[in-house]
Structures are given as structure tokens and as C-alpha cells.
Amino acid sequence: MKDDDDPFASTAGYLIHKAEQILTPALAIYPELVDRNISSTLRLLDGDPNRWRPHVKTAKLAFIMSKLVERGVVNFKASTTLELLSACKSGAADVLLAYPAAGAVARRTREIAGEFRTVTVSALVESVSQLGEWSGGNVGAFIDVNPGMNRTGVEQDKIGDIVILAKAIVTAGLTFRGLHYYDGHLSNYEMAERELIAHRGYGRLLEITAALNSEGVMVEEIITAGTPAFPCTISYPGFKSEGFIHRASPGTVVYGDCSSLAQLPREFGYRPAAIVASTVVSHPCANRITCDAGHKTVSADAGAPTCRVLGRPDLIPKKPSEEHLPVEVAEGSEPPAIGDILYLVPKHVCPTVNNFDHALIVEKGEVVSVKPVTARGREIPLIIRAAAP
Predict the structure, then answer these.
(1) Topology given in CATH for the domain delimited by 53-249
(2) With bands split at pLDDT 50, 70 and 90, how would you rate the model's confidence at 5?
(3) Strand-pair category, 94-97 with 341-346
């Protein structure tokens, strides 16, 4: 398959031998394509795995996290304590819990950091009031800078507030790691405008860094860019500075999905590496089929259609219900038969992977193993764990 081919056009390389024996819907992961996507990302980062801090909310499987570690990618982001724990167990050297933590979640994070003392564990902070959560432990702190997404963080224009917070981190005896800047909202813009807005924000990050350095607070690391802003972050010349390490944090690229493949240049070379095998279960009316991949299987958080059918552009997924995915059959096309297997590429792969307990590992058309989706869901709540024998 050439890099400029349509990645959805064919099922070549995806068909599973004896697929009729699989209980569907089923998550299938293709390690050769995962390796290809990892290689594409490292190539874009000049071959330096130290510049990549992927978010493991996508990978989810310890099997895939270990593959990243084998390629030299040892710095990660996580959103849950279970993801944090899974990354630590998979050989990570450095993990940032890139989600606001308070109360029991903060205590559990400190507990994991204490258990894995060879792993550098950090957390996000945006307020002096949060520092007490981390006092006395070995968890470092990144300041969460709000890039205009208005989800979390200190507004990027409030440089003075960021300096005060950084100084307070140091005064509290915590390790100040650097700045975290997740600009996921840039997916709403076409590439030229996306890059313009991103670079403007990155310039502000450098202003913040200069202000901190002038106050004697050194910025060790700047983290930017999930998948939509990845092309913008690697094109920004200011991140070549020797004064800090810059790491990009796209995670979706490990598996790829409809959204990321639309957001990124085709020449980057990414391919879908995780699909959902689904069975046609009904022909309810003319020009309509239904398969077993409702929104409890393929996440609907990114809207309908929730997926694309590999090799069948004439099949248009419609709005799903919990267990059913209606699919419109284009006029003049032959509908699949009841019992046929469809290979679906999710629009948003991260929550889709989280819908499964297990993943089929497929190589050259054969299911070679079944791996647990290690970081699916969350840990048992602390109060229950404490009471368990």
C-alpha cells in the first residue's frame, strides 16, 4: 500500500482468517501497523524518541505500551491512576498524570509514585491551593497552561500568575518540571489557520519560559500538542531551544482513527492499526443493514457517523443505538449478507478501545494472541481496596 493511497479503500491486510469464529463485536489490533505508526511518529521527530510523550489513554494495553518502550519511547502522559499504574509497570521512565487530581486520586497518585521510585511521576497544577495535595511526596509538578481551550489550566496571558505559581511550587519543596499546554481545540481549524493559532500560543509559552527563567525558576520541559496540533508543533522553530526539552504528546497516532487521519497530512504515513470486527445481524428494510457495533462498542462521542467501513465506501454508518449500528447501503450496491463481517475504523479510537476488555492481536491475517485492555476503566475505588482482604 502506497502512502498516498486511501487508507479506507481496502480490507487488504485487515481480513481475519476464520473471522466467523470470533465473538463480535471484537477489537482487533495489528502490531505491524502499530509499528508503522510508531516509526512514522519517530521519523517526524527526527528519530528522537525522547521528544515524544504519547498519551496512553489511547494505547490502553500494556502490550502496546511495552512496544513503545522497546522503541525507546519511555515518557508518557496518563489521565487515570490505572493508566499511570499500567505505564509504570510497562517500563515507563517518566509519566505525567495529565488530569487535575484532588483528594483520593491525588493520594493514590502519590502511592503509585512511592511504589515505583525509579519512575519520575508528575502531576498538573493550576493553583497554589492544590500544592498541599503533593507536599511531602515525590510527585513533581507541571503548570497546566490554558491555550484557549478553556477546559483546565491558567490562562496563557496571565504570565505573572504563572510565575507566582511556579515560585510557590519551589517554595513548597516540590520539583517544578515545566509547562503543559494541550491545544486539542485546534482540530476545529483548517491546517493553515491551525498552525497560525498554534504558533502564536507557542510564542506565548516562550514568553512564559523567559519570565520564569528571569526569576530563577528554570523550565525543564514544555509539553504541547495532541494529535490535531502535532504538525504545528513540529514545525515551530522556537522549540529547538537548548534551554529546555520540548515533547509532543499525540497518542491517537499509535492506532489512528477516522478523525486523526483526516486531521493529519496523508504524507505522514499513518494507517488504522485498531479496528472493530462487527457482524451484519439484520436487513430491516431496503437499502439498510444493521451490525452489532452500537455506541457501547464504537464510541459515539465524536458524533455520527461513528466509523467507516473498510473497503466499502458504499456503506454509510448512521446514528447508532446502544448495541445496533444501522448502515445505509448506497443505491445500486449489493448489501452484505447477514452473518458477514464488517471491518470498522472508529471515528474516535481512544474511547472505543476503552469499551473492550480484550483485544485480538492479528498478524498476517491470523489471531496470534488475545491481550487484556490493561488500563480499561479505572481502579477499584480506594475505600473498597482498603476494605478488601
Answers:
(1) TIM Barrel (3.20.20)
(2) confident
(3) unpaired
Which CATH architecture describes the domain 1-31+264-375?
Beta Barrel (2.40)
CA distances to 53, 87, 246, 306, 328 from 243, rounded to whole Å, are 18, 28, 10, 43, 55
Confidence grade of residue 382 (pLDDT, cut at 50, 70, 90): low
- Mean of the pLDDT values across residues 251-255? 98
Q: Do domains 1-31+264-375 and 53-249 have the same CATH topology?
A: no
Q: Which tens digit of pLDDT belongs to each residue from 149-162?
A: 999 999 999 999 99
Query: What is this structure's pTM?
Result: 0.95
Angle between helices 159-171 and 191-214 (to 10 degrees): 50
What does the mean pLDDT of the chain come to?
95
Return the domain boundaries, the chain: 1-31+264-375, 53-249
Distance CA 69, CA 125 (A): 27
